[in-house]
Specification:
Elements: H1 4-7, E1 12-18, E2 26-31, H2 37-48, E3 57-61, E4 66-68, H3 75-78, E5 86-90, E6 92-98, E7 104-110, H4 115-126, E8 134-137, H5 145-153, E9 162-164, H6 201-204, H7 211-218, H8 226-231, H9 238-244, E10 265-270, H10 284-299, H11 307-329, H12 336-347, E11 371-381, E12 387-397, E13 400-404, E14 416-419, E15 424-430, E16 435-444, E17 447-455, H13 458-472, H14 482-496, H15 521-526, H16 529-540, H17 548-560, E18 568-574, E19 581-585, E20 589-593, E21 600-605, E22 609-615, E23 620-625, E24 629-635, H18 640-653, H19 666-673
Helix pairs in contact: 10-17, 11-16, 11-17, 13-14, 18-19
Length: 677
């Protein structure tokens, strides 16, 4: 029997599940609708009668897949009724993260914070600056099929070596060690290996990273067998590459809301390819992880490169491998002061930024608009695979190229004027064959107009290529990044320009090298092991004097020079189209690509974008550009929220500045990427 006073109080029973080893699974409490969430937690803890710190516990609403974190809200306001299944559980749980260097770390992560905040906390623990460039990726089913089939016929796999960092849980909102992000700190790193000196290990992180763990995160371990590569997912087509980007987690929702369970494994990857303010003094872990992500992308052929470029990447990896071996066999007698001087001297000009270099000659006179003028060959593709090649006098001014019959006629009207703003610039280079070509894909009303330019030598190519790259972004040669761009291109060409003189190269027999570890499986099938070793050693001559950190930075720069660098692919269906296309998302543009041929159809620059939105009912992304250009598409290979977040994320990252405080405007990020579902 229930008394009249109890009956009139509108109480009702609520069944709560407690996620705790020493407590019964379910506890029944009598509650009212005006009881706030904090009061419910207090009643439950009093009922449990276990003295401990319950501050990390919160209610997880199983049916609605959401956390009840606003403790001042009443149950009525939250919509909680008698049939609600609430679980009283910890907000921080164990998570396994596979890093870009293929090492797995196990640490405590907030399952109730938005993924953007959780990644920020993870990066503080791992000593990776600029956490906004990274995110968490769940491997899609398509990338696991190959591995699962092989596992059926194989023996029980060996236990994976996991770096356990669970002794120091990452607490959301906790102040990070100020040394991690302080501009006044001067950490001391070994000038060759880049690893922190033992005296700075206490500075290096919040405490859970020992000197040994620092080495695991900051140093590369390049040895990987062809058998290991064969077991990993290797995309063959654009559709395969689209599968790689399907599993990005929503940065505006928590891990628990997206179905991630305790001790699950996720991938921590650089999602946005805008590596801002890379500094060898502070970013030893960050540089190594970027290098590793680039290295695996090349080995697994996630990004295309020529045979010549593959050998350069192999040579840089080999240099890292050889330098590391020689470092371990020699004693280091230099003082800390000399180490700092050496690392600053060796790497002062290698800082990798979004625009590819440090600004120099700030006070240089740019009142005169620079221009290029020279004889170049124009190659126009014609029907039946024939090409017309003819020499013209070319003049590059502002962001346009004009060409004339000869130098004398340059005062008159040009034969044609090409506006390069918003175009695609693709290198077509073979240094050994003395081929220095520039492929321009210029947007026109019905697609892309292809134009090929042929240069006579490396110097001419570097100057014209740099001008084209800047013009595609809407910048002229007066921009301070022009000369660093020229030097970067020349540096890359110099690495490709190795001599074929055999006496300069080390004998393959005398070098402890497994060439299969440094190139993709396609090249291990094409060449015998000795041939491959000899070719890598030939390419190695131009990089043999580099230190470990310098080799990694050069590798990153070479990776950034590839035509497909920074493109994330998705299969989409454009409004009004009857066939599927591939959409490439980059830091400054969207590219529509023909799925069958791989040829770009149209390019749209973010700088010309007026607005974008998502129709969440039909999952369609709509974008408006200048000159009344508008597009709309649905995403078939992933949720449209991922593309929406990519666009907003890149726009957010473009607002960063070294002059600003390094604290992130998290609210702005969520405004640009969150969407309104």
């Amino acid at each position: 029997m229930v008394s009249s006073t109890e009956y009139g109080s509108h109480t009702w029973d609520l069944m709560l599940t407690v996620d705790h080893q020493q407590v019964e699974q379910e506890i029944r409490l009598q509650v009212t609708g005006d009881l706030h969430v904090g009061g419910l937690m207090l009643k439950l803890v009093e009922k449990i009668k276990i003295a401990q710190d319950w501050s990390d516990y919160a209610f997880w609403w199983e049916q609605k897949k959401c956390w009840l974190l606003k403790t001042h809200w009443t149950l009525d306001k939250c919509g909680v009724q008698a049939d609600a299944k609430l679980i009283f559980t910890t907000q921080h749980k164990m998570l396994r993260l596979r890093l870009p260097n293929m090492k797995t770390v196990r640490l405590k992560v907030s399952f109730s914070s938005m993924v953007f905040r959780a990644v920020s906390d993870i990066c503080k623990m791992l000593n990776i600056r600029r956490s906004e460039e990274l995110s968490l990726l769940k491997q899609s089913e398509g990338t696991l099929k190959k591995k699962k089939k092989k596992d059926k016929n194989s023996k029980e796999p060996a236990t994976e070596d996991i770096l356990n960092l669970c002794n120091s849980p990452v607490s959301s909102g906790s102040p990070a060690n100020p040394g991690l992000y302080s501009k006044t700190m001067t950490p001391i790193y070994d000038p060759v290996s880049g690893s922190p000196a033992s005296s700075t290990v206490t500075w290096f992180s919040d405490g859970s990273l020992t000197e040994q763990n620092c080495s695991i995160l900051a140093l590369s371990h390049p040895t990987c067998s062809p058998e290991m590569l064969a077991e990993m997912y290797q995309p063959r087509t654009l559709a395969d590459k689209a599968k790689l980007n399907a599993g990005w987690l929503d940065s505006s929702r928590s891990l628990m809301e997206q179905g991630v369970l305790e001790d699950d494994q996720l991938l921590l990857r650089f999602k946005y390819y805008t590596f801002f303010d890379l500094n060898p003094k502070y970013d030893v872990v960050r540089i190594n992880q970027i290098y590793e992500q680039a290295r695996w992308a090349i080995l697994l052929e996630e990004i295309d490169c020529t045979e010549e470029e593959m050998l350069i990447f192999a040579a840089l990896q080999a240099q890292y491998h050889v330098s590391k071996l020689s470092l371990s066999s020699e004693t280091q007698d230099s003082t800390c002061e000399s180490e700092v001087d050496e690392v600053e001297a060796a790497l002062s000009n290698l800082e990798v930024t979004l625009e590819g270099g440090n600004k120099s000659n700030i006070l240089e006179d740019i009142t005169d608009i620079p221009k290029l003028a020279d004889n170049l060959k124009l190659v126009r593709p014609k029907k039946l695979a024939l090409k017309a090649i003819k020499t013209y006098w070319f003049v590059f001014r502002d962001t346009s190229i004009s060409y004339f019959k000869n130098k004398e006629s340059a005062q008159g009207e040009p034969i044609e004027k090409l506006n390069l703003k918003g175009c695609e610039v693709v290198p077509d280079v073979n240094v050994a064959a003395k081929k220095f070509g520039i492929k321009l894909l210029i947007p026109v009303a019905d697609g892309m107009n292809e134009v090929y330019l042929r240069c006579d030598n490396e110097d001419q190519y570097a100057r014209w290529m740099a001008a084209c790259v800047l013009a595609s972004k809407g910048r002229t040669m007066a921009d301070s990044s022009y000369q660093p761009e020229v030097q970067k291109i020349l540096s890359f060409l110099q690495m490709k320009n190795w001599t074929m003189c055999s006496q300069d190269a080390s004998e393959p027999e005398n070098v402890d090298m497994k060439p299969e570890c440094f190139v993709s499986p396609r090249y291990t099938k094409k060449f015998k092991s000795k041939q491959l070793t000899a070719r890598i050693l030939e390419a190695h001559q131009n990089v043999s004097q580099m230190s470990l950190v310098e080799a990694k930075l050069r590798f990153i720069q070479a990776w950034q020079s590839l035509p497909e660098f920074g493109l994330s692919y998705y299969i989409v269906r454009f409004k009004g189209s009857k066939k599927d296309d591939v959409l490439g998302v980059s830091y400054n543009r969207l590219i529509r690509i023909d799925m069958a041929t791989g040829d770009p159809i149209t390019t749209w620059r973010f700088s010309n974008m007026k607005q974008w939105n998502v129709n969440w009912e039909i999952r369609q992304v709509a974008i408006e550009f200048d000159q009344n250009v508008s597009i709309a598409f649905t995403c078939l290979s992933a949720d449209c929220k991922i593309i929406h977040e990519y666009i907003g994320g890149y726009i957010f990252l473009s607002t960063r500045s070294k002059d600003h405080n390094e604290t992130l405007d998290e609210e702005l990020f969520h405004k640009l990427t969150g969407g309104q579902e």
